[in-house]
Amino acid sequence: MSLLQTQNLSCHFGGIKAVDAVNFTLNAGEIRAIIGPNGAGKSTFVSMLCGRQRPTDGRILLKSTDITDVSADKRTALGIAYTFQITSVFSQLNCYDNVELAVQGRLMRQSGSRMTRQRLREETCHQLERVGLADYEATLATHLSYGHQRLLELAMGLSLDPEILMLDEPTQGFAESEIDQFGILIKQIAEDATVLLIEHNMNVVMSLADSITVLDQGRILAEGTPQDIASNAAVQTAYLGTD
Amino acid sequence: MTLSALMPVLDRYFWLHIAVIAALLSLLFVLPEYHSGIMARVMVLVVYALGYNLLFGYTGLLSLGHALYFSAGMYGAGLAIRWLDWSLFPAFFSGIVAATLVALVIGSLALRTIGVAFMIVTMMFAQTGYLLILYFNEYTRGDEGFVIGQAARLIEWGSITVDLSAPDNRYLAAWLVLSLCLLVKLILVRSPTGRVWIGLRENEERARLLGFNPYRYKLSAFVISGIYAGIAGALYAILFGYAGATFASIQYSILPLLWVLLGGAGVVLGPVFGTVVMFYLVDYLSEQTSAYMLFVGVVLVVLVLVAPRGILGSLRRRLLHGLP
Questions:
Q1: Shortest Cα distance from A63 to chain B (angstroms)?
Q2: Taking CB atoms and an 8 Å cutoff, what residues of chain A touch B2?
Q3: What average pLDDT score do residues A21-30 get?
Q4: pTM score, whole prediction
Q5: Paired residues of A83 in beta bridges
Q6: Which one of B60, B225, B255, B319 has the largest count of C-beta atoms within 10 Å of its C-beta?
Q7: To the nearest whole angstrom, how far is the Cα of B312 from the nearest Cα of chain A?
Q8: Yes or no: is domain A1-76+164-173+194-243 CATH 3.40.50.300?
Q9: Which residue segment(s) compose the domain that B126 sits in?
Q10: What are the residue boundaries of the structural domains of chain A, listed by start?
C-alpha cells in the first residue's frame, strides 16, 4: 500500500536542479533506503517530504491526501518524524528534557490522552531506555558524544510515535559496535513504523533495507531490492564512474 | 492537558521562591522609610522585568519596545481615571486590557520578523506609541504627564477604606502583585507551554519538527510578557499617582533588558535581583556624580566579562543546578 507518494517533485536552486521531477512511492511497513553520490539531492528530497524545504514544483501525497502546502509542524502531527543530518538537539538541555519535549508534543496532539506529570515521566524514561541513553538522563546534550547525540535525536523521533520515520544519515559518527546495535533498533522500529533512511554506509543499507532508491543528479536512477541494486550496472557507473 | 499539569511543583526551588517573597515582605518592617519607598517602586518595576524575562530569557526574543506595553497599562489605567472617573479596580483592569490588546496586535505583526528585524520592528512600534502620547497631549498632557488624584487611589470595601497613596499600603500592594506575578511565572515556565518556549529559544527548527507551531508559542510568550508590562504600568500609575510620556520612551524599553541581563536571563528570580541592584546602583551613583550612566555602563561591561549569565545565571551554573 502506498503511504507516501511524490509526483514530479522538484526543487531548483537557481539553475541547479537539486531534485528534478521525482516520482517516488513509499509503501507502508517497509524500510526504504535512499542512496546516491554526494550532491545527488537526497537531503533536499527528504527535506521536502518533511516540510523543511518548499518544492519548486510537484506534489506530495500522504495516504492520497495532498500535503504539499502543509507546514512542517503539522506534518509532524500527521505522523512524519525527521531526524537531522547534522545533529540538531536542544544542546543546552539535558537528555531527559530533550525527549520530554518530544513526548509532550505527541501527548498534546493526541486527543483524549491525559497528560500527567507521571505519564510524561514514564514515557520519557521508556524512550531513553529504548535507545540506551537511560544513564545519561541528566547529562546536557552538548556533553554527549556525537554518536550519543544521534541516539538522542532518534529517541526524540521515536517519542513522536511516527507513522513514517525519516532518518538522514543516522549512523554518521557511530563506532562499528554502535552500528550493529543501531541496526537491531531500526528493525524493532520498523515493526510498527515505516522507515525512510538516507545512508552512506552500504553495509547498513544492504542489511536493513527492504528496498532501495538510488538518486543521481536529482533523478531516480534505479529502484529495487538490495540484490537488484547491487547488480545494477547504472548504479555502479554512477558510484564508481566508467573507465 | 489536565489541570494537574499546572499545579506548582512543590520542590525546594518552589520554597526558595516563597522565601524570597517572604523576605521582601519582611523588608517593610526592617527598612527605613526612604528605602521601603524605593523598594515599593522597584517591586513594581520587577513585575515589568519578570514579564520581559519570559520573552527574552525563556523564549529568546529580544524586544526593544516593551515600554509600549508598560505605557499602555499606565495610560489605560490613568486615562480611565482622569477622563472617565473610573474607580481603582476597573481602571487597573482597563490598563491590563489595553496592554493585552496592544501586545496582541503588535506581537502578531512583529513576530513575522526575526532577529535584528524583530528588534527594530518592536522598537519602531514603541516609538510610534510614544509619539502618539505626545501628539494627543490634550488628553495625555504629553511629556509633562498628569497626576492621579488621591481620591482615585482608594480601595473601598464596605466600611473599610485602604489608601494606596500611604507608603505602607503602597508597599504591600506592590508586594502582593509582585508575589502573584512571580508565582504565576514560576508555574508558567515549568508548564508544558514554558518548556516549548525554552525549546524555541534553544533550537526553533527542532521544536518545529517536534510538531510545535513556533508562531503560536512565540505569540503567547509575547502577549503574556505584554500583560506583565501592562500590570506593572497600571500599578505604577495607581500607586505613584502619575502617568507621563517618559515611561513610553526608548529608555524604558532598554531598562528591563538591562535588569534581566544583570539578574540572569532565563532565571525566574533573575529580574528581582537585577532590578534591585541596578536601581540602587543608579541611586547611589547619581548622588556621587552627574556622569552616573557612565559608571552604570562600566558595571555592565564588567558584568558581561565576569558573569555573562547575570547574577543568578552564574549561581545556577555553579550551585543551584536546575533552578527554574
A1: 19
A2: 114-116
A3: 93
A4: 0.90
A5: A167
A6: B225
A7: 17
A8: yes
A9: 3-249
A10: 1-76+164-173+194-243, 80-161
